[in-house]
Amino acid sequence: MPSINGVSSPAMDYASEVYSASLAKSAQEQQGRQNLELLAEAAQNVTPAASSGSHTTTDNLGQNININV
After folding, report:
1. 49 Cβ partners below 8 Å, 6+ apart?
2. 31: which of 7, 24, 47, 63 is 20 to 30 A away, CA to CA?
3. What pTM was estimated for this model as a whole?
4. Within 13 Å and on the Cβ side, how many CA atoms surround 39?
């Protein structure tokens, strides 16, 4: 790579790597924030039957077994 404004090629390579690492870090931080927001949203949207303690709508799940021979 040619020098730009008197900056040598090794310095440009180093600057490029630092810039790439900075962009990657920013992307990871943004993805982490989005994941935390998604988890928080999922925790807020709990079904009423699961959160109320009344299991009348879910008491019969898994109790019917169909066996065909």
Report:
1. 55, 56, 57, 58
2. 47
3. 0.49
4. 6
